[in-house]
Design brief:
This protein is mostly beta strands and 449 residues long. It is built from three helices and 36 strands. The chain has two domains: 37 residues, no CATH class; 305 residues. It has a 34-stranded parallel beta sheet that branches. The chain has a two-stranded antiparallel ribbon with strand order 35-36. Helix 1 runs antiparallel to helix 2. The radius of gyration is 25 Å and the shape is globular.
């Protein structure tokens, strides 16, 4: 039994303080040099109390079992506290609620069975958790969501239930906050969403309202569609309103819509938006659909079999910010639909249909991919696009993190698309073995490709 727990038990029995101190010293002598053990919580104990009282830097270990909602009250600022299952034990939490301006907490390795709510929190991390059937909603600063598995979500629909609805256009709209989003984040700063798997999501994978300093990297978006409420508008990523410094990099999208970036209530632009090294294939309607994102940088993506537009850039007449200055280069894209006035530079793209204004653009009906039936959209040896990119705009690495050794044109140009030919690096963990992933949902309409 940990020393801290023994001391606590002794205090509750009202033993003389001298005896308590003597026993504590005796225990320390019996285990010389041993650091104080982490507190261990079992199902019969209060997880909330253990977390709220944890010391700075302490890890709270949780025994196997099911626990009620983890709550951290408003204003409670922990300092580097981690809560996770003990060893290989399996622990389940019925949701997480972190109050306004509370934080300093890392939640790791749990199965989380109800919605997790963050009320403008500070320095909170969710790492390696499983979320089903509800996701995460809220706001904050210094947020990390890494290597989580969010799957088979649903929408809580009950016409008789009080409270705000998930949308305003469906008669049978769900009851907030259980709206079927994997992540629904708003007004947040300094957020990293990395290495997560989002599969079978009935609303958006990410719905993002007015974000600052956001990195979305190495995630899998698969089977995202309106399979619960048919009137829901389900995108892999929906960005709304006035956002700044958002980077969407090295993600894999399949059997879903891709990225939608637009105004919110008729205003707000996406500034300094970067979309690079993503693989977007077998999509419902589009890969990248952007409204009013001046200076957007859309580079080195593979976007094919989209059932509609691959990349679309549109100026929203209701918003005063013009869609201007975009850089679109080094993409393998089925269609590019953009007025030339929206782009400052467009070249070195391999395009089937639409805009091809660059002197080095390649017109191709279908690239020679390795094995698209198994979601392998690398270019085959000898294909167009290998060595046809522009090194000055190519990212230093490809979607797998493999070096684009020719970036910068020092030894010849890099390849077009998300993959660099011949690189042996492994795929990011979130989307390895894509060919073996789950089949489409039963009853889904035929794929559009």
């Amino acid at each position: 039994m940990p020393i801290g727990l023994e001391m606590s038990i002794l205090r509750t029995r009202c033993l003389p303080i001298q005896l308590v101190i003597s026993l504590g010293l005796l225990l320390a002598v019996i285990a010389p040099g041993r650091a104080q053990a982490s507190p261990v919580v079992g199902p019969e104990q209060s997880l909330n109390r253990a977390v709220a009282s944890a010391e700075p830097g302490e890890t709270v270990l949780v025994r196997r079992g099911a626990y009620p909602r983890l709550r951290l009250p408003a204003g409670r600022r922990l300092r580097g506290v981690t809560v996770k299952p003990a060893g290989s034990e399996r622990a389940e939490i019925s949701g997480v609620s972190i109050g306004r301006r509370a934080g300093g907490l890392r939640i790791e390795g749990f199965r989380i069975t109800d919605v997790s709510q963050l009320d403008d929190v500070r320095n909170v991390a969710f790492v390696g958790n499983e979320f089903s059937p509800h996701g995460i909603v809220g706001a904050g600063r210094g947020l990390l969501f890494e290597n989580n598995y969010l799957h088979d979500l649903t929408i809580h629909r009950d016409r008789a239930a009080p409270g705000p609805r998930c949308n305003r256009f469906s008669e049978d709209a769900g009851v907030a906050p259980r709206c079927g989003f994997a992540f629904r984040l708003y007004y947040s700063v300094g957020v990293v969403i990395r290495g997560n798997r989002m599969q079978r999501i009935p609303a958006d994978g990410l719905q993002l309202l007015e974000m600052r300093d956001l990195l979305v990297e190495g995630n899998l978006f698969e089977d995202i569609s309106a399979f619960v409420d048919p009137l829901e508008h389900s995108d892999s990523i929906q960005m709304l309103g006035d956002s700044d410094r958002v980077t969407i990099r090295a993600n894999f999208f399949r059997r879903a819509r891709g990225i939608l970036a637009q105004t919110f209530k008729g205003s707000g632009s996406q500034r300094r938006l970067v979309i690079e090294n993503n693989v977007m294939v077998r999509l419902w309607h589009w890969g990248v659909n952007v409204f009013d994102a001046p200076g957007a940088r859309i580079v080195s993506n593979t976007i094919w079999d989209t059932g509609g537009r691959g990349i679309g850039l549109t100026d929203d007449p209701n918003d005063p910010t013009p869609m201007r200055g975009a850089i679109v280069a080094n993409n393998v894209v089925s269609s590019l639909r953009a007025d030339p006035a929206t782009m400052a530079f467009e070249d070195h793209n391999m395009v089937d249909e639409g805009t091809r204004g660059g002197a080095h653009d390649l017109s191709v009906r279908r690239p020679d991919f390795v094995d698209p039936e198994q979601s392998d959209y690398r270019l085959r040896s000898g294909s167009q696009g290998i060595g046809d990119g522009l090194g000055a705009l190519a990212p230093a690495t490809d979607v797998r993190g493999a070096s684009r050794s020719n970036a910068g044109d020092a030894a010849g140009p890099p390849d077009i698309g998300a993959y660099e030919f011949g690189a042996r690096a492994a795929l990011p963990p979130a989307f390895r073995d894509l060919g073996a992933l789950s089949p489409p949902l039963s009853g889904r309409r035929a794929a559009p490709w």
